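[audit] Reproducing an earlier prediction to check determinism. Same input, same settings, fresh worker. If the C-alpha cells differ from the archived copy the diff job will pick it up downstream; this log only records the rerun itself.
[audit] input (138 residues):
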Amino acid sequence: MVAVIMHVVFDGWPQRYDSLLGLNLLFGLFITVLLWEGNRAIFVLMRRLFPRYDQTTSRLVVQTLTSTIFTFLATVFLNEFHRLIFTVPLCPKGGIFSSFLLKMVPTLMVTSFYESIYFFGEWKKNLQRSEALARAGI
C-alpha cells in the first residue's frame, strides 16, 4: 500500500498501466519490507541481548548504531539492486546519503514507538510486581 501511495504522491496517478509500473510498485514494497523487517529483527535481538531494565541505555545505544548501519547498507544494496533490475540507480549520483537520511526518519519513528511500548510494558510489570510484594507484606 505504501508503494502505491508513494508512486501516486511523487509521480502522479498513472494514465495507463504498464509492466514497469507494476515492477516499480513491487520494488517499493520490497524496500518497505526489507527496511521494516530488518530493523524489527534488530529490535527483537536487542531485547534478547539486553533484557534487564538497567541495560536500557546499552540496548538503545547498540540498537541505534546497528539500525543505522543496517539502514545505510540496505540503502546501498537497494540502489545497486534497482540499477541491476531497471538499469538506472534508485538514487541519483551522490544521492545515497540523502536517501539514507530519508529512510532514517521512519526508522527512528517506528523504533521509538516500539521502544515506548516495550518500556511501558516492562514498567507496568514491575509496578504490578511491587504491588504484589507490598500486599504480601514482603
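[audit] rerun output stored. Observation attached for the diff report: The chain has a mean pLDDT of 83.
[audit] end
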